[in-house]
Design a protein that fits this description.
The chain is an alpha/beta fold and 454 residues long. The chain has 16 helices and 21 strands. Helices cover 33% and strands 25% of the residues.
Length: 454
Amino acid sequence: MSDTYDVIVIGAGPAGEVAAQRVREGGLTAVIVERRLVGGECSYYACIPTKAVLRPIHAVRAAQRLQGVTGAELDVSEVLARRETWVSGRDDSGQAEWLDSAEIDLVRGEARLTGEREVRVDDRVLTARQAVIVATGTRAAIPGIPGLAEAAPWTNVEATSVDTVPSRLVVLGGGVVACEFAQIFAALGSAVIMVERGDRLLGRLDEIASEAVLEALRADGVDVRLGVQATSVGRTDGLVTVGLDDDTTITGDELLCALGRTPNSDDLGLDELDVDLADPPEWLHAVGDASGRVALTHMGKYQARAIGDLIVARATGAVDAADEERYGRFSDAAIDTATPQVVFTDPEVASVGPTFAEAKESGRNVRAVEVPMTAASGAALQADDYTGTARLLVDTDTELIIGATFIGQDAAELVHAATVAIVGEVPLPRLWHAVPSFPTMSEIWLRLLEEYGL
């Protein structure tokens, strides 16, 4: 292994892997430095294990909603076994072998930036001819609530690694992580209490999504408490006690802290080099969660593709003016205009673009067009007594879609069509000619166009 490469990538999560792959495919040499598992938190403690558990839960519920199906139930031990299959028992040898097959070197250890294009890994110094890419991700934040850290709270790491389900679980937070885990553990048999200091769940999504998920969690038996926050935490004889600012106390066998994320870039030596990842020098790039822009795996990989291609183009002198355009080859403009996201609760929430409130605040003339999902025969056939909502946000001056939200069973797959429409800037009248098959859930697009008045 060399000590000099064209590109050094710090962090072997999805964004780091894609960045290294793109520069390698462009003919440059690349090395990835990883201190933990190749594949990153997404592969072992976040996206993959949670969805591996949620899918059986959703499948059972979908079956129970259909007349003529009987006997559908969960086997908790088998659900957890399925999770372990998907995370390969947290053995990253398979992903390390992929790096080797892609001719990307792997150095294991703690990375630290010690100079321009220079990274120290323990006693070894690596030098980059072209660039260093920081893809170190984030970790769960543990706020300074008295007693919280000492109570050994769960984060997503512990929650995705459990062998047994606690009888009682307290969840601090009301975001995506909190909602998904609350539903997971409620379905697996825990009595769950959620504590959210805001006045609604999923505060970054449209209010219709917040209301739908709140109703679903409460129907699952989750005790959701809004507008309150923890003021103290203690653990005695294995039990966790949480004091709230409404002068009440709750108790659980375990406590999940889902109160935000902290960048893992805080120990890379950035301060010593007087470098800010929000405005880095030309030789340094940040992708994925480390960039501070959007904490979603798919958008991190999108960033990584753009930056990897840019580094190759600069190294080979192949930069074209068209590549610098809004949606050019080196652009990550979709982060600002068309970031899709799915909350894998039941019902699923799939959204792209701004919320209605954000769109109005931007000063645009925006109209929200909304129909029940059952307006499409495909949705009504998907489940007896199907419930859900579809909403488009339309710029009425241009008749372009700028945002969309789909709520309901199996609604996640609908969001990509909206993403394509936004990025492609397809006017609503043209969408009338994109005819969905009958009877599919995609027919909801016709109902939305009709509601708009086309």
